[in-house]
Design brief:
149 residues, alpha+beta, Immunoglobulin-like, four-stranded mixed β-sheet, three-stranded antiparallel β-sheet, 1 helix, 7 strands, 38% strand, elongated
Length: 149
C-alpha cells in the first residue's frame, strides 16, 4: 500500500486510514450490491402477485338482457352500496365483443360503459363483495348481444 510521504504525521495517518477504509469498502461492496439487487427483484416481482382473488360462486340475482349494434356504447348501472361493499366483475369478458371504456360514480350508482366490438354474446356477471374478498353477497348479470349494423 502506497501512502504519500508527508512531513506532517497527521496527513500520513489520514491517508493510511482512507486506504484502509477503501480496501475494506471494496470487499463490503459486493454483499451490499447483491442485497440491493435481491431487494429490487422482490419489489418488481411482489406487486405482480398482489392481485385480488377472483369472485367465487355468485348467488342468484336478476338477469338483464341487452341487444345492441356493433360500434355502439352500452352502459350498465350498479347501485352503490355502503359498508365497504363493492361491485366486482366476476367473470372475464371477451374483449373482441365488449371493451370497457369508462367507469364513474353517478349519483347513487356506479356506471360502467362498454363499447361493442364484433358480433357475439357476452355475459357481464358482477358480484357484490366486501372489499377484495372472494365471497359474493349479491349478484347482477347482464347478457349483452351484439348484432351487425
Amino acid at each position: 500500500m502506497l501512502v504519500k510521504e508527508s512531513p506532517f504525521p497527521v496527513v500520513q495517518r489520514v491517508c493510511r486510514a482512507r486506504m484502509a477504509v477503501y480496501s475494506k469498502g471494496v470487499t463490503m461492496l459486493r454483499p451490499v450490491a447483491l442485497g440491493a439487487g435481491a431487494a429490487a427483484a422482490l419489489v418488481l416481482v411482489l406487486p405482480a402477485r398482489a392481485t385480488a382473488p377472483p369472485v367465487g360462486a355468485l348467488p342468484r340475482g336478476p338477469v338483464t338482457t341487452i341487444h345492441t349494434r356493433t360500434g355502439s356504447l352500452v352502459a350498465v348501472a350498479l347501485p352503490h352500496r355502503a359498508g365497504g361493499l363493492v361491485w366486482r366483475l366476476a367473470r372475464g369478458v371477451d374483449p373482441k365483443v365488449l371493451v370497457e371504456v369508462s367507469e364513474a360514480n353517478v349519483g347513487k350508482d356506479v356506471v360502467v360503459v362498454y363499447r361493442a366490438g364484433r358480433t357475439g354474446r357476452v355475459k357481464l356477471a358482477y358480484g357484490l363483495t366486501r372489499g377484495e374478498t372472494s365471497r359474493a353477497r349479491a349478484s347482477l348479470t347482464f347478457v349483452v348481444t351484439v348484432q351487425r349494423r
